[in-house]
């Protein structure tokens, strides 16, 4: 996930001399409603027992009361919107080649690798919208798609109030602001932002509603002053109670996890949900 870069986790020392002097400002868009103060996001769906980015993984997220499901949007050779993380189908399916070099019919024939020996397929975007409506919010990682086409499907599904869009490329921002100005947007802070003035300039140019992976207390306070949420990625091979406890101490508003069922149980045991 990236906006101007591949990955960033701003360190505690980055803006140690930050002073909060900006005027509080309300972002133009409200985030989807949630029953919980701390948002739990199922990374590529709840894929503990079923394949990632499948309808089954979304069903699993819904079943355990997850707040958001994170899914990745891509486009087929014939211009159809599908949900798949990688730019190729090699890792996750029994097929080979780039997603955008396969037609939808070819994509639908592929079988997604699974743990339970059941047949799973790459879903179309409209199928995911239908499944999630009034059940779970969507964190849409906007990998490779047309904004107008995406917005049309969102409107047709009546899902305008249940989605946050993660923008990966610089040109995606003005496209979303032009076509769907009320859609909540999320991104990462660029590598080159290393001062309050630079961050202020960035946020004045890119009016977003959520930032990911910021752990610097001063930056978080500054973002809070502008009513911008911070969501933290905790998915990791060693993810568990220790990493969750450490993440919760950072005071963020959301956690993206590969183990949403276990994280929710952990939160309940600790009186946090």
Could you tell me the CATH topology label of the domain at 39-183 and 234-269.
TIM Barrel
Quick one: biggest sheet? 8 strands, parallel, barrel
What share of residues are in beta strands? 15-25%
β-strand number: 9
Low-confidence stretches: 4-24
If strands are numbered along the chain, what order do they take across the biggest sheet?
1-2-4-5-6-7-8-9
Radius of gyration: 18 Å
Assign an overall shape: globular
Q: What's the tally of helices?
A: 9
Run of helices and strands:
EHEEHHEHEHEHEHEHEH
- The CATH H-level superfamily of the domain at 39-183 and 234-269 is Phosphatidylinositol (PI) phosphodiesterase
- Which architecture of the domain at 39-183 and 234-269 would the CATH scheme give at its second level? Alpha-Beta Barrel
Reading off the top of the CATH hierarchy, the class of the domain at 39-183 and 234-269 is best stated as Alpha Beta
Compute the average pLDDT: 90
- Kindly name the structural category: alpha/beta
In which range does the helix fraction lie?
A: 25-40%
Distance between the termini: 28 Å
Task: Please tell me about this protein's structure.
- With 273 residues, this protein is of the alpha/beta class.
- It has a domain at 39-183 and 234-269: Alpha-Beta Barrel (TIM Barrel).
- Helices cover 29% and strands 15% of the residues.
- The protein has nine helices and nine strands.
- It has helices at residues 55-63, 104-109, 125-132, 147-157, 172-179, 196-205, 217-225, 241-248, 260-269, and strands at 39-43, 68-75, 81-83, 137-142, 163-167, 185-187, 210-212, 229-233, 254-257.
- An eight-stranded parallel beta barrel has the order 1-2-4-5-6-7-8-9, surrounded by five helices.
- Helix 7 (217-225) links the parallel strand 7 and strand 8 (229-233).
């Amino acid at each position: 996930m990236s906006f101007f870069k591949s990955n960033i986790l701003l360190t505690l020392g980055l803006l140690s001399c930050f002073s909060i002097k900006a005027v509080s400002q309300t972002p133009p868009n409200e985030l989807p409603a949630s029953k919980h103060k701390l948002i739990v996001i199922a990374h590529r769906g709840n894929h503990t027992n079923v394949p990632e980015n499948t309808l089954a993984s979304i069903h699993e997220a819904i079943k355990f009361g997850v707040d958001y499901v994170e899914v990745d949007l891509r486009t087929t050779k014939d211009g159809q919107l599908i949900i798949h993380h990688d730019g190729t189908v090699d890792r996750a399916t029994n097929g080979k080649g780039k997603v955008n070099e396969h037609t939808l019919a070819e994509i639908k024939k592929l079988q997604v690798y699974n743990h339970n020996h059941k047949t799973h397929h790459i879903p179309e975007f409209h199928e995911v919208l239908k499944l999630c409506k009034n059940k779970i919010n969507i964190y849409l990682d906007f990998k490779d798609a047309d904004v107008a086409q995406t917005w049309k499907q969102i409107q047709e599904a009546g899902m305008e109030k249940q989605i946050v869009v993660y923008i990966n490329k610089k040109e995606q921002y003005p496209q979303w602001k032009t076509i769907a100005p009320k859609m909540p947007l999320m991104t990462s802070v660029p590598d080159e932002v290393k001062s309050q003035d630079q961050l202020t300039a960035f946020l004045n140019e890119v009016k977003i509603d959520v930032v990911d992976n910021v752990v610097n207390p001063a930056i978080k306070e500054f973002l809070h002053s502008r009513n911008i949420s911070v969501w933290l990625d905790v998915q990791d091979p060693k993810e568990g109670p220790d990493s969750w406890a450490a993440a919760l101490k950072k005071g963020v508003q959301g956690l993206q996890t590969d183990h949403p069922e276990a994280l929710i149980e952990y939160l309940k045991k600790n009186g946090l949900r």
